[in-house]
Amino acid sequence: MPPRAYGGTERVVYELVAELVRRGHDVTTFASGDSEVPGTHVETVPRALWPSGFDGDASGWFVSTIQGVLARAADFDIVHSHLEWYSPLLAGLGATVGVPVVSTFHGRLDQPWAGGVLAAAPGRYVAISRAQAAAHPRFDWAGVVHNGLRLEDAPFGSAPGDSLCFVGRVGPEKGILDAIAIAQAAGRPLRIAAKVGTMPAEHAYHDDVFLPALRKAGARVEFLGELEDRERDALFADSYATLMPGSWPEPFGLVAIESLACGTPILARPSGALPEIVRDGVDGFLAADVERLAAAVDRVGELDRAAIRASVVDRFSSARMADGYEAIYAGLIPSASEPRAQRVAAATNGDRATG
């Protein structure tokens, strides 16, 4: 952290850590050894796995991370987990050693087993959008905290080019082929900046589906590969609009706020949390199919790019995100009259848990 290219969760966690440290909190971050984070850094693995091309079973690294957190439980007022479905395990073990655990889910929650896991786990859970939380409407969520980033330094494209862009990952759920179809129907060039995953199914989709479509589309569709932060932001700022035509239920949509911070409108299906970010007719246009999204391209020039930027910088700042989490932390941290080490010792009968 922060990620040098693709990595939405890592970017959000970095921004939260940085903002909490700016506010004077003592923060310990468990992350790969090549991370650069403020506060205290505990190495979980020498180098980040995904950027290194790792495509094996990472479960052992999750377990060793949980063990490392529990070994230091007496040091913490609260633990904030971003380990997805390993978080309930950490929450259960945290309860046995007297440290409260709050967990944020960054992925999909509409799994057939998810409700039972959430109901049985003792921790408190945070959703990153109302749409994500709606997968389990009867669950007692600790809160909904929209993701936030430091967006004020994003380049502003006051005079963009005529190209559309697609930023994300090469996968069917992201609607990358629909993005090509929208650009072609609108008569606009398209630039694609996307990561190719390391899993066999992802490689197969890239090789057998995406590349043939790219070759068929011709020179007006350019594949840029995976871009680093500055290059990606420059692409947003120079683009007429950003396409997000995926039909899967986006838990949030960082690409949307990063594009809007550059003043670049969004054309998207109203999937998942995107209607919570993109105000239809203000920040871009939402439509359910390729034809209507292509028709909306000609209306993008009506939108106020400066107002789009100003709004998203306020609505989805890292400061607002930290405000939300601070409020949740305050409700979970036990009374200061009982020292941390004393709580942990009492919960474990004097033995520090290591998992």
Feature tags:
four-stranded parallel sheet, globular, disordered C terminus, Rossmann fold, alpha/beta, 2 domains, six-stranded parallel sheet, 12 strands, 355 residues
Notes on the protein architecture:
It is a single chain. This protein has 355 residues and is an alpha/beta fold. It folds into two domains: 8-149 and 318-347, Rossmann fold (3-Layer(aba) Sandwich); 164-315, Glycogen Phosphorylase B (Rossmann fold, 3-Layer(aba) Sandwich), CATH 3.40.50.2000. The protein contains 14 helices and twelve strands. The chain has helices at 8-22, 59-71, 87-96, 114-120, 130-133, 176-186, 200-217, 229-238, 254-261, 274-277, 290-296, 305-315, 318-332, 340-347, and strands spanning 28-31, 40-43, 79-81, 101-104, 124-127, 143-144, 164-169, 190-195, 221-225, 241-244, 266-268, 284-286. Helix 7 (200-217) links the parallel strand 8 (190-195) and strand 9 (221-225). The longest helix has 18 residues, at 200-217. The protein starts with 7 loop residues before the first helix and ends in an 8-residue tail after the last helix. The model is unreliable at 350-355 (pLDDT under 50).
